[in-house]
Amino acid sequence: MAAPAARVAYRKGNVQMADYDSYYQTEDLFGKPYAELLDFFSNFAQRGSLLDLGCGQGRDSIPLARLGYTVSGIDNSKVGIAQMIEKAGIEKLPLTGLVTDLYAFDRYQDFDIVLLDSMLHFEKRDMKREMELLDRIANEIKAGGILCICIQDTGKKVKILKETINNTGLAFEILNDSSLTYVYEDKESGHSSKTRYCMYILKKQ
Ligand SMILES: C[S@@+](CC[C@H](N)C(=O)[O-])C[C@H]1O[C@@H](n2cnc3c(N)ncnc32)[C@H](O)[C@@H]1O
Predict the structure, then answer these.
(1) Residue 188 and which of 69, 132, 144, 199 are 20 to 30 A apart at CA?
(2) Is the CB of 30 under 6 A from ligand 1?
């Protein structure tokens, strides 16, 4: 059976021009996906439905759709979503994009896998709402569902992530808890920088 064609939806009325719309004038702003993430999902037995929350330009969504996952990417940058959908359309990937505010999203139970890559920062200003978001996702994903979080391993971010999961009181099996290096290359200046990341993948019991 042929894969469904990629398509974009734009939910009017609740989305402002996103900051990232201007950043995404640079193609593939955040570079390549982490090899470790693709390696994990290449070897993961079940191909299923995957929600990429804050998918940006599709850095993860596109290669995961190529691996056979049915991917839904949501982001409030219509530029990022349009770029992702255009690329996915050329390859007829099973990838849907939705421009919306992820804090208004409430269909977590519909997905086998929920991915948050570089979406949680736990900076003072956003700490409470990010912790509440994580708590809500952990509660709402289905039993057997996978939660994959990639987060900068600086300061107390990883500690807060794990404490927030523990505080839900829910049972999760840890499928992966590893450290990786993200290399960011600034295409204009040619300058590159390295950042430690934690990849934390859980299965809800
Ligand atoms: C640091 S980028 C990460 C993009 C992608 N996950 C990746 O790793 O390449 C953060 C993304 O989150 C999106 N974003 C931030 N706040 C959002 C919100 N409230 N609703 C939807 N998208 C949001 C931004 O537009 C941006 O694309």
Answers:
(1) 199
(2) yes
Can you read off the two tokens belonging to residue 91? 């390859």
Q: Ligand 1: does its nearest atom lie under 6 Å from the Cβ of 77?
A: yes
State which of 20, 81, 100 you would mutate to test the pocket of ligand 1, scoring each by most atoms of that ligand within 8 A of its C-beta.
Answer: 20
- For the chain, the maximum distance between any two Cα atoms, rounded to a whole number of angstroms, is 48
Which two three-digit tokens encode residue 111?
């997905």
117 Cβ below 6 A of ligand 1? yes
What are the pLDDT digits (tens) for 87-101?
Answer: 999 999 999 999 999
| Average pLDDT of every residue of the chain | 92
Separation between Cα atoms, residue 119 and residue 121, nearest integer Å = 6
- pTM strictly above 0.70: yes
23 lines ligand 1 (CB under 6 A): no
Mean pLDDT to the nearest integer, 71-87: 98
| Tokens representing residue 9 in the block | 């939806």
Q: pLDDT, tens digit, for every residue of 102-130?
A: 999 999 999 999 999 999 999 999 999 99
| Residue corresponding to tokens 């994959």 | 148
Strand partners, 180: 197
Q: How far is the CA of 123 from the centre of ligand 1 (A)?
A: 15
Instruction: Give 3 Cα–ligand 1 centroid separation in angstroms.
Output: 26
Q: How confident is the model at residue 16 (pLDDT cuts 50, 70, 90)?
A: very low
